[in-house]
């Protein structure tokens, strides 16, 4: 998942970015509300972590602008404001969660996963596709009941494709979900990850659509009402 972090404190922002990246997330860090809105227009984020005390505009106005735009992902307010009226205003304003600083990184990542599930319409912590089961909370993948070790990038691609079953995702769309600003991306990186996923999970799992991208097809019983 690619995350947008809007935090003006340099130490907290850098520590949060590093911690989330070590957990396998791609993180773009901005320090102002205007920069956050610009980034959200230009890139696809699964989650926005939004400080309320940004230097140029209040985080509540950023929240309102994000929800008034086409952004439909999760938004978590991360702030030192701990008063009940602030929490109520943030949640009523469209935030999916409200986290008080200082916070535990493990709890933050758990809340990110939970909010992302709700934003994508999922309530369960597992995803299944045939005999493949993904435990989203623990990032474990099993095929036929057997654990399949994946790298963080392989896991992210698999999760993205399964969450978008039936849709063809281009190489650029997959790169957008994997890499943050400043990360060098080899031209064949996605192709290599797809190759490794096929070796580990089956050659027919991921379909290549020539000159367009990659797709995991929906199960037969979900394809236009086909018989199970």
TrEMBL record:
<dbReference type="GO" id="GO:0005829">
    <property type="term" value="C:cytosol"/>
</dbReference>
<dbReference type="GO" id="GO:0000156">
    <property type="term" value="F:phosphorelay response regulator activity"/>
</dbReference>
<keyword id="KW-0902">Two-component regulatory system</keyword>
<dbReference type="GO" id="GO:0000976">
    <property type="term" value="F:transcription cis-regulatory region binding"/>
</dbReference>
<keyword id="KW-0963">Cytoplasm</keyword>
<feature type="domain" description="Response regulatory">
    <location>
        <begin position="2"/>
        <end position="116"/>
    </location>
</feature>
<dbReference type="Pfam" id="PF00486">
    <property type="entry name" value="Trans_reg_C"/>
</dbReference>
<dbReference type="Pfam" id="PF00072">
    <property type="entry name" value="Response_reg"/>
</dbReference>
<keyword id="KW-0805">Transcription regulation</keyword>
<feature type="DNA-binding region" description="OmpR/PhoB-type">
    <location>
        <begin position="124"/>
        <end position="218"/>
    </location>
</feature>
<dbReference type="InterPro" id="IPR011006">
    <property type="entry name" value="CheY-like_superfamily"/>
</dbReference>
<dbReference type="GO" id="GO:0006355">
    <property type="term" value="P:regulation of DNA-templated transcription"/>
</dbReference>
<dbReference type="InterPro" id="IPR001867">
    <property type="entry name" value="OmpR/PhoB-type_DNA-bd"/>
</dbReference>
<protein>
    <submittedName>
        <fullName>Response regulator</fullName>
    </submittedName>
</protein>
<keyword id="KW-0804">Transcription</keyword>
<feature type="modified residue" description="4-aspartylphosphate">
    <location>
        <position position="51"/>
    </location>
</feature>
<feature type="domain" description="OmpR/PhoB-type">
    <location>
        <begin position="124"/>
        <end position="218"/>
    </location>
</feature>
<dbReference type="InterPro" id="IPR036388">
    <property type="entry name" value="WH-like_DNA-bd_sf"/>
</dbReference>
<dbReference type="GO" id="GO:0032993">
    <property type="term" value="C:protein-DNA complex"/>
</dbReference>
<dbReference type="InterPro" id="IPR039420">
    <property type="entry name" value="WalR-like"/>
</dbReference>
<keyword id="KW-0597">Phosphoprotein</keyword>
<dbReference type="InterPro" id="IPR001789">
    <property type="entry name" value="Sig_transdc_resp-reg_receiver"/>
</dbReference>
<keyword id="KW-0238">DNA-binding</keyword>
